[in-house]
Amino acid sequence: MAIAINWTREAELWLRDIYEYISQDNPVAAADVVTGIYQRAQVLITHPDIGHRYEGTSDRDIRILLYGHYRIAYLAKRDGNIDILGVFHGAMQISSYLFDGGKR
Q1: Which residues does 93 contact at the CB level (< 8 Å), separation at least 6?
Q2: Maximum CA pair distance of the chain?
Q3: Which of 60, 14, 53, 55 lies closest to 37, judged by CA?
Q4: What mean pLDDT is predicted for residues 13-19?
Q5: CB neighbours of 69 closer than 8 A, spacing ≥ 6?
Q6: Can you count the helices (H) and strands (E) in the chain?
Q7: With b meaning 16 or more CB within 10 Å and e meaning fewer, what string describes 4-42?
Q8: Alpha helices (runs of H) in the chain, residue ranges in sequence order
Q9: Is residue 103 part of a domain?
Q10: Domain membership flag for residue 104
């Protein structure tokens, strides 16, 4: 069981960008998507290993949790906490973001 879910600044920026992009056409849908992503991540409190292990790294327990067309990348830390690293559209190549210091 996870102790806490921490959204990194980078992950919060991704959520903001997702909201802004969708809200250009439909602000209600944008709010629904961002809320859905946040709520989906809450499952990690009781099931931190639910996401599939990201095979791009062997030294960190980075996992991917799916929500619709989005992938929620998170780090399951040894202290039991979860760090949400980013939220990526399924069409994106996330390895360049996860291993490039998160720079967009």
Answers
A1: none
A2: 41
A3: 14
A4: 95
A5: 89, 90, 91
A6: 3, 5
A7: ebebbebbeebbeebbeebeeeeeeebeebbeebbebbe
A8: 9-23, 27-41, 95-98
A9: no
A10: no
Q: Per the structure block, which two tokens stand in for 52?
A: 């599939």
> Number of structural domains, the chain?
1
What is the per-residue pLDDT for 54? 80
In whole angstroms, what is the distance from residue 73 CA to residue 27 CA? 25
- β-bridge pairing 82-89 and 5-7: parallel
User: What's the pLDDT band for 91 if we cut at 50, 70, 90?
Assistant: low
12 domain residue, yes or no: yes
Residue tagged 């069981």 (tokens): 1
* Mean pLDDT of the region 42-67: 85
Per-residue pLDDT, 102:
43
| pTM summary value | 0.83
CA distance 51 to 28: 28
